[in-house]
Amino acid sequence: MIRRWGPLSASILLALVLIHAGTTIPDTDQWLPLLGHRSAVTHSMLLPALVLLRWPMVGGLLAGGFAIHLAADLLSRKWVGYALVKLPLFGALDATASVVFLAVNVLLGMLFYDRAATEAQGRRALWVTLAAAGAVYFLINERYWLLLFPVAAALLLIRRR
Ligand SMILES: [Zn+2]
């Protein structure tokens, strides 16, 4: 059955665009002056929060993309050099602080995203959108193939209903 193009499809489309943007923005620290890689400025909810102040929906959906990127960064095998979170002027956080910093920001990002999803009146659909986008991101960028098992299990569960 073909559903009518409605506000829900529009918000899913908007979410996909903003989630994609959110996953790519954090690593712009590699070519921005003054920021080391994994800068706390781009690897945190600072930017989505600033957008959120003016445009709550845009900031919230963007935060979902940031959360996916930071969650993937949490999979780093070794917490040295490149992987550590850098604070402008203050150098790098240590391994434990980097993990905690990223994890706290992932949670914060999900809270921001949930607020936007609830506001958009398509909370469930938007969470499915974030989960799907996250799965694609993990598969492409992290080659995290183990993820196929929970995704396949979830699809089977949905079909059985
Ligand atoms: Zn990154």
Describe the 3D structure.
Keywords: Membrane, Transmembrane, Transmembrane helix. By secondary structure, this protein is mostly helical. It contains 6 helices and 2 strands; from the N terminus they run αααββααα. The chain has a two-stranded antiparallel sheet. Helix 3 (56-73) packs antiparallel against helix 4 (95-119) and helix 3 (56-73) runs parallel beside helix 5. The model has no long low-confidence stretch (mean pLDDT 88). Residues 26-27, 38, 43, 69, 73 line the site of zinc ion.
Features:
two-stranded antiparallel sheet; 2 strands; membrane; binds zinc ion; 6 helices; 64% helix; single chain; transmembrane; 161 residues; mainly alpha
Order of helices and strands: HHHEEHHH
Tally the beta strands: 2
Strand content: under 5%
Structural class: mainly alpha
Distance between the termini: 17 Å
Bound molecules: zinc ion
Contiguous helical run count: 6
Please summarize the sheet with the most strands. Answer: 2 strands, antiparallel
Structural Rg: 17 Å
Count of structural domains: 1
What percentage of residues falls in helices of 4 or more residues? Answer: 55-70%
Query: Which regions have little confidence, pLDDT < 50, spanning 5+ residues?
Result: none
Mean pLDDT: 88
What characteristic shape results from the CA principal axes? globular
Major β-sheet strand ordering? 1-2
Transmembrane segments: 45-68, 89-113, 125-158
Keywords: Membrane, Transmembrane, Transmembrane helix
